[in-house]
Amino acid sequence: MSYLNFDKTLLINLERSLSKEMIRTNRAGAYNSTTLIDCNTRKYHGQLVLPLSGELPEDNYVLLGSLDETVIQHGAEFNLGLHKYGWNNFSPNGHKYIREFDCEVISETTYRVGGVILTKGRMLVSFEPRVLIRYTLAEAHVERYIQRDFTDLMFSFGCTGGQHRSVYSAEHIARHVAEKFGVRVVVTHKMQGVHYVIESAG
């Protein structure tokens, strides 16, 4: 069991989830920090915070505070963001769609909106003032392919070196698809020379 993995029960409970925070750095002064449910509650919270100097007073500056995503499904809008206003007012309550948060390798939040499972991954580029945000729509694609009687669907992941972030993402999606849909999944890690099959449970 990972101590860096949190499930829906904790995440949708604001009293518990807002008290837990995460921070990731680029090893050069920049960082990403917020609560587990992406609700900034401190002035130094943000998706990308950098130490700046020169014309500005030397300090840390929040260059990207937050991202407000909206999933549109069958004409209906579902807002995934969450902000705190005043003492205890929250909107638009997107935390209710969160199913899992994991920061074992990279920071990943998994949302479920109807039949759509959306995973948002965040990572800082080492020694560079950049944050990368990646969205993966896994379950919706698999369901559509099965309905259309297609036999092959490929998910590809890449990162510098191909040893950590991409490996974790591929393993996570492979296990989820195999368990959820009972299909045969082939996993290949090119940089590691690893190739194996997860057989259908059905």
The tally of helices reads 4
In one word, what is the shape? Answer: globular
Characterize the largest beta sheet: strand count, sense, and whether it forms a barrel: 5 strands, antiparallel
Mean pLDDT across the residues is 86
Low-confidence stretches: none
Based on DSSP secondary structure assignment, what is the total number of beta strands? Answer: 15
What would you call the structural class? alpha+beta
Q: How helix-rich are the residues, as a percent range?
A: 10-25%
Set down the secondary structure blueprint.
Layout (H helix, E strand, L loop, with lengths): L4 E3 H4 L2 H4 L3 E5 L5 E5 L10 E7 L6 E6 L5 E4 L2 E4 L3 E3 L3 E3 L6 E5 L4 E7 L2 E9 L6 E7 L1 H9 L17 H17 L3 E5 L4 E5 L4
Antiparallel strand pairs: 1-10, 2-3, 3-4, 4-5, 6-7, 8-9, 10-11, 11-12, 12-13, 14-15
Brief write-up:
17% of the residues lie in helices and 39% in strands.
Explain how this protein is built.
By secondary structure, the protein is α+β, with helices and mostly antiparallel strands. Helix content is 17%, strand content 39%. The chain is built from four helices and 15 strands. The chain has helices at 8-11, 14-17, 139-147, 165-181, and strands spanning 5-7, 21-25, 31-35, 46-52, 59-64, 70-73, 76-79, 83-85, 89-91, 98-102, 107-113, 116-124, 131-137, 185-189, 194-198. A hairpin with a 4-residue loop joins strand 10 (98-102) and strand 11. The longest helix has 17 residues, at 165-181. The protein is globular and about 60 Å long. The model has no long low-confidence stretch (mean pLDDT 86).
